[in-house]
Write a structure and sequence with these properties.
This protein has six helices and ten strands; from the N terminus they run αββββββββαααααββ. The chain is an alpha+beta fold. A hairpin with a 2-residue loop joins strand 9 and strand 10. The longest helix has 20 residues, at 193-212. The chain binds a DNA duplex (16 and 16 nucleotides) through residues 1-3, 6, 33-35, 56, 70-75, 89, 105-111, 150-153, 157, 160-162, 169-172, 216, 218-221, 258-261.
Length: 271
DNA sequence: CACGGATCCTGATGGC
DNA sequence: TGCCATCAGGATCCGT
């Protein structure tokens, strides 16, 4: 579910309200998918310092370490002072002096991982190979082009892998490639500097517009106050197979790459 | 090492 | 209505 925009919208929706809170209790439900075998110590008494983000991970910085949260495909967070009893798909309640942060994730592809600091082995394992943050100044078109020249996979799969640039998931990969006029099947190392520049700009543009719109809500994404986003109304190609391209009218086509659906306009996006 | 495929889990949806 | 197949926003692991 959540790609970078949804994770960032979630972060922004509760970060300021939880900052400074004391942890009073932490309850964990069913185990999540990965990584296995990592023990979470008692966090009671620690203070929440700030909430950051790296790629699709939320980083809850506490007094003695960092709680890494990942929302997987179907996860969402809720932050409230009063909550109903936890349901079968609620896998974590972090009770604090300023409200309870609850992780809801039916498919359980998400993660809750404690690390004493970001240099700890578990944190390095999860974050160590991540690419550049697309909305930071460190995301530079020329560097992006250089990194793409080392990859022979189709550009869409390189974006999804997150080792060159993070946060671009299945929806925004199709959207950014449409905006850049690039066919998703083009080998990454065949992109000219000009086209890499266009893609670089498109990624920043699509992701920042999605954050401003509160993210995309397919079926169940909501921010920490339960509000849905509306960027899905703006999708140019994602989920629009057979419908007319908003630019040229050609039917949007779909194909499968690495077991994920890709959407593109065969007219606007050049091989 | 880079790459492609199988895999984890649950729920919604559509065809017959 | 019931049953089955397919698909869904992610990322890891494993074989080649």
């Amino acid at each position: 579910m959540p790609e970078l925009p949804e994770v960032e919208v979630t972060r922004q929706s509760f970060a300021h309200r939880i900052a400074g809170a004391r942890v009073l209790d932490m309850r964990l439900g069913k185990p999540l998918r990965w990584p296995l075998g990592v023990e979470t110590p008692s966090l009671v008494g620690q203070q929440v310092q700030h909430v950051g983000r790296r790629g699709k991970y939320l980083l809850l910085h506490l007094s003695d370490g960092v709680l890494l949260l990942h929302l997987g495909m179907s996860g969402s967070l809720q932050f409230a002072t009063v909550l109903d009893a936890a349901g079968v798909h609620d896998h974590m309640d972090l009770v604090t002096s300023q409200g309870t942060l609850r992780l809801h994730d039916p498919r359980r592809f998400g993660a809750v991982v404690w690390a004493p600091d970001l240099q700890a082995p578990v944190a390095r394992k999860l974050l160590g190979r991540l690419g550049v943050e697309p909305l930071d100044d460190g995301f530079v078109a020329e560097h992006f082009h250089k990194a793409l020249r080392l990859r022979r996979s189709p550009i869409k799969q390189v974006l999804l892998a997150g080792e060159v640039v993070v946060g671009v998931g299945n929806i925004y990969a199709s959207e950014a490639l449409f905006e850049a006029g690039i066919r998703p099947t083009v080998r990454a190392d065949r992109l000219s500097l000009t086209r890499a520049r266009r893609l670089h700009a498109a990624i920043r543009d699509v992701l920042s517009r999605a954050v401003a719109a509160g993210g995309s809500s397919m079926r169940d994404f909501v921010n920490a106050h339960g509000q849905a986003g509306h960027f899905q109304q703006t999708w140019a190609v994602y989920g629009r197979a057979g419908a007319s391209c908003r630019v040229c009218g050609t039917p949007v086509r779909t194909l499968v790459q690495g077991q994920r659906s890709t959407f593109f306009c065969p007219q606007c996006q050049k091989p």
